[in-house]
Amino acid sequence: MTKTPKASGKKIAAKAQETTSGPVERAGAAIERALVDPLTSALKRAGLRRAQKNAGETTSASSATSAPTSAGAGKPGLAISPLAVPFPVIPPIAGVEIATGRAGFYKHEREDLLLMRFAEGTSAAGVFTRHGVGSAPVDWCKRQLAASGGADVRALVVNAGCANSFTGKPGADAVRRVATAVGKRFDCRQRDVMMASTGVIGVILDDSKITARLPEVETRLTADAWAQAGRAIMTTDTFPKGAYATAMIDGHEVKIAGIAKGSGMIAPDMATMLAFVATDAAIAPAALQTLVSLYTRTTFNCVTVDGDRSTNDTLLLFATGQSGAPKISRPGDKRLADFRDKLEHVLLDLALQLVRDGEGATKFVKITVNGAESPASARKIARTIAESPLVKTAFAGEDANWGRIVMAVGRADEPVAREKISVKFGDLYAARDGLISAEYDEAKMSAYVKNQEFEVSVDVGVGKGSATVWTCDLTKQYVAINGDYRS
Question: Distances from the Cα of 226 to the Cαs of 232, 269, 349, in angstroms?
Answer without folding.
Answer: 10, 27, 16
